[in-house]
Write a structure and sequence with these properties.
The complex is a heterodimer of chains A (182) and B (188). Chain A is an alpha/beta fold and 182 residues long. Chain A has a single domain, classed as Beta Barrel (OB fold (Dihydrolipoamide Acetyltransferase, E2P)). Chain A has helices spanning 2-19, 39-43, 112-123, 145-162, and strands at residues 32-35, 50-60, 67-72, 74-83, 98-110, 167-179. Chain A has a five-stranded mixed β-barrel with strand order 2-3-4-6-5. The radius of gyration of chain A is 19 Å and the shape is globular. The N and C termini of chain A lie far apart (47 Å). Chain B is of the alpha+beta class and 188 residues long. Chain B contains five helices and five strands. The radius of gyration of chain B is 27 Å and the shape is elongated. Classes of the chains: A alpha/beta (182), B alpha+beta (188). Chain A binds chain B through residues 19, 56, 58, 62, 64-66, 71, 73-76, 83, 85, 88-89, 91-93, 95-98, 125, 138, and chain B through 38, 44-48, 84-85, 87-90, 92, 94, 96-97, 101, 103, 116, 118, 123, 127, 130, 132-134, 187-188.
Chain lengths: 182, 188
């Protein structure tokens, strides 16, 4: 009986391991190649296009691992990458690894309405972690309410100065990624 | 069908569903405790145990961060073999190790060494609890949730008499419903 049980567990582990191989073997095809350093300049013209990008993982979100940030050499530009439906999570062990990511470039428009809703979310006793703009800066996940309200006010200022009705934030919704070994 | 036969069926199905639910219940309960304390701020990370050490390190000569400087720092900390990569920030340097990192403030040399250990097992339980896998697991976990509802209902009719749902069971069931309701009333 014990042997049968152990055998069944072994089979289940093997099946689960096989299922977890989804993010291996990345074929960029005719995806647009983007670079971390010029991401902001390139992004506006390729929204909803399939892109491929390489960078070092600076941070992964500890609330479920659905988000990570890529940098290249320095942290002056951080590219937000979110996990697509076929990626279970970005594990923290990826931090510091060089990755090649394939995904679709997304635009998030931040307007007055968005900022008002975010402000209401921040003021709730049980805040929704997914609300708002994620920067990937060190300690951004441990920000207090006042820090977040300051961030919202700073974005309100940016929005006012931009002369437009919204600010654009770009990210990549990843469908696949692979580690680039040195 | 007679009440006695109905109760016999109820108990048999309740028992077997209970056996089937043991694995998932343990996964959700253990992971639930971890995520509960992560959400309340008692744990830094739900998947990793972390420790921190504050040290003071020499600053790079001429203020230039070179690979030689990075490795001299790691040599001093005994972490040379664990180097993965490094990233420069404004007045800071972060060196990534296979199981941790070193964050150096380049204005004064103060540094934080982070070491992390994966919480094997719990990490996988959290993956299931968050339903990060999606696909078929969404339906499987729905099935488990339905089984729990079914167990709760059949559980009410396992016993009859003084310990049944009409006597002692009624009070305990009422307490079980009132407690979460009180939390909502006072805290939400």
């Amino acid at each position: 009986m014990t042997r049968k049980l152990l055998f069944s567990i072994e089979i289940m582990v093997l099946i689960l391991s096989a299922c977890n191989m989804g993010s291996k073997g990345l074929d960029p095809g005719d995806a647009v190649k983007v670079a971390v350093a010029s991401f902001e300049q390139q992004a506006a013209g390729i929204v909803e296009k399939t892109v491929v990008i390489e960078g070092t993982v600076l941070h992964t979100c500890k609330h479920g691992g659905k988000r990570m940030f890529l940098v290249d050499g320095n942290d002056s530009v951080r590219v937000e990458v979110t996990a697509g439906k076929d990626i279970p999570k970005f594990d923290e062990k990826l931090i510091g690894s060089r990755l090649r990511v394939l995904g679709v470039l997304k635009e998030e428009k931040i307007d007055e309405k968005y900022l008002n809703e975010w402000e209401n979310e921040v003021k709730k006793p049980e805040e929704n972690h997914d609300a708002g703009v994620h920067t990937g800066a060190k300690g951004h996940e441990d920000q207090g309410t006042q820090d977040k309200l300051d961030q919202i006010n700073s974005l309100r200022e940016d929005l006012k100065n931009s002369g437009k009705d919204h600010l654009s934030f770009y990210s990549i919704e990843a469908s696949k990624f692979e580690e680039i070994k040195k | 069908m007679q009440t006695k036969t109905l109760r016999r069926w109820n108990n048999a199905i309740h028992r077997d569903t209970g056996y089937l639910c043991i694995g998932m219940t343990l996964i959700y309960a253990i992971s639930g405790i971890v995520l509960n304390h992560f959400k309340s701020g008692d744990l830094i990370h739900p998947d990793y145990a972390k420790s921190y050490k504050e040290v003071v390190l020499p600053l790079p000569k001429d203020g230039n961060v070179t690979e030689a400087y990075v490795f001299s720092v790691l040599d001093r900390l005994g972490e040379k073999d664990h180097y993965k990569s490094h990233v420069l920030g404004t007045n800071s340097l972060e060196i990534f190790l296979s199981m941790g990192s070193v964050y150096i403030d380049l204005t004064n040399g103060s540094a934080q060494v982070e070491k992390k250990t994966p919480l094997y097992g719990i990490r996988e339980f959290n993956l299931l609890h968050y339903n990060n896998i999606k696909k078929l697991y969404t339906w499987f976990s729905d099935l488990y949730a339905l089984a729990l509802i079914f167990m709760a209902i059949t559980g009410m009719f396992v016993l009859k008499g003084k310990n049944g749902i009409l006597k002692r069971g009624a009070w305990l069931t009422l307490i079980g419903i009132l407690l979460p309701a009180l939390f909502l009333l006072f805290y939400a």
